Amino acid sequence: MKTRVLAPTLLLSAVSAIASAEQRIATFDLGSLDTLEALGVSEQVFGVPKQILPAYLEQYADDAYTDIGGLRSPDMDALRNSEPSLILYNGRQREWEDQLGDIATLLDTSLQGDDYLTAFDANVRELASRAEAESDAETALEILHNEIEVQRDALRNAPRTLVVTHNDGNLMLNEHPVVHEVLGVTALDMPASVTSETYGTRTFTPLSPAAISEIDPEVVLVIDRSAAIGNTPADPETLTQSLADAGADNAQVVMLTPALWYLSGGGLKSLALQIKEVSAALNSTAN
After folding, report:
1. Could you tell me if 236 and 224 are in contact, meaning their C-beta atoms sit under 8 angstroms apart?
2. H-helix or E-strand containing 170?
3. Claim to verify: residue 233 and residue 137 sit in the same structural domain
4. What is the total count of domains within the chain?
5. What is the mean pLDDT of each run of 10 residues along the chain (287 residues)?
């Protein structure tokens, strides 16, 4: 009787292992790509959007990987011809969801809900489950959470910090969850003169140099969308001077790594890099 019970279990384990080894993942989500790499299962990845890859993922520009198009321009023919078993996508590709679903099984890796770390952990565990790397995921999450606690403690007396997004010469408020939720840096109150604008389902809060002067930050962390997508980047000296001319002459401008913050957040590697970058910037300013 024991043989009859164990045989199906062994068979299912063998089938599962083969399925994992033969998994062919195409990912538009760069955070998921760096998570799969951190978990040691990047051999399951065959397709990536090569048009825009952060420097720390530039190895995926190699000819060994299929170019599946841009983040907002999926190459359906390349995907279809390469026969993926799983496609990872996020909000940038949602309008092509039906077409992608006709090609392969889909997994939406957008971070869902109001608690960033809870959503982040859930995504890592889901990816690990698909790639059969659950044990490695738990180890990686434990290490990451320990580092978060260390850095949160180090930033208890962080300088007054404002996060903004630069886009074609304009600045917008960016209440980034890595800075304010994960690292616990206090978000600054907005004065009555600062108002938000809604376009469709999205809300933006433009910030002029005069408004930033009124907010009175000690540090302005800049996420440069323009630089991340290949447009004209912000010039930090010009930005610093414009703030000084408006009265914010005590504000230190820190340019964050554009592609890391705008294109590839939400991964095990990218979150660790973001934490390191913010901590280094704010601790050096405090000292």
Report:
1. no
2. strand 170-173
3. no
4. 2
5. 32 37 88 97 96 94 96 95 95 93 96 92 96 97 98 96 97 97 97 91 92 97 96 97 95 97 96 97 77
Query: Does residue 8 lie in a domain region?
Result: no
Question: Phi, psi at residue 201, to the nearest 5°?
Answer: -100, 5
Residues across the chain: 287
Cα 164 to chain center, whole Å? 16
Query: CA 207, CA 242: separation in Å to the nearest integer?
Result: 12
Antiparallel, parallel or unpaired: β 86-89 and 105-108 = parallel
Of the candidates 134, 41, 55, 139, the one whose C-alpha atom is nearest the C-alpha of residue 88 is 41
In a domain, 11, yes or no: no
Distance CA 222, CA 183 (A): 17
Residues 279 and 169 in one domain: yes
Quick one: 162 and 144 in the same domain?
Answer: no
- 25 & 115 share domain: yes
> 109 with 90: CB under 8 angstroms?
yes
